[in-house]
Amino acid sequence: MDGLGSKNNESTFPSFGDLDDFLTKHNSNFIWLLVATILSCGWIIYLTYYNSRNIGLILTLIINRLYKDGYIHIGSFSFSVLSGKVMFRDVYYINQDMSIRIQDGFLIFRWWKMYNPKQKQHDPKAETRLYVTVNGFEFHVYNRTDLYARLQETFGLDPTLITHKKDEERGREENSKTLESVNIKAENPDPSSSWRSLIPVIKVNISTGRLAFGNHHLPQTLCVNFEDAFLTYATKPPSSHLDQFMHIVKGSLENVRVMLVPSPRYLGMQNDE
Length: 273
What we know:
The protein is an alpha+beta fold. Helices cover 33% and strands 33% of the residues. Strands 1-2-3-4-5-6-7 form a seven-stranded mixed beta sheet. Strand 2 and strand 3 form a beta hairpin. One of its GO terms (cellular component) is presynapse. Keywords: Membrane, Transmembrane, Transmembrane helix.
């Protein structure tokens, strides 16, 4: 019986010698080519359909582990070093005050362009190095907890809101900002170390977008819909010595519509007028 069992095991699990003899008799080059072809097809399918999604899932987990003041989701993420292109899909950021959603988009960083350290930081006519294209952009503001908390503190009301910043931290930040604004003229940062000297102009293209302001406690929500927005962001020297620089956004919007729509799930009293 033991001899029969050992023979069955040998017949079920061939040895390396038997496998080598089998490959030699049946043209091993063709078999290895078939195996390599199957593995290559599987790898191409993974890179095409699943790699960007897995990278987006990993980035979502890492970012939310480090960032605690909101939730950030990245559906898919891929990049190309040669073309300087970063592609993303199903991206949204949600906190207690607002939400930003992007259906899909990409950005191109033209790293191959020569960098001139002597280039002016505030040159709106400079050649752009960063180009952003977004499709399905939504920006919704539904709360202002920081402002409400300050009003409660000003009028001596009992705090009913939980803000993501403590009062002590907010006070320290305001003090640090005040000190920085006072010492702006005393400190002259190196232009070559500033991001504005590397990217003086940013061009943004939004195919379809929507801005919304309101929540379910208001009877109506202000909505601004637009299509084909071409925006150019740059900076200029400040008009006041207390400022570091001035933001400038120029562009054009098509098919702009401003509407007051009924808020879904409105909890207040209905007006029949």
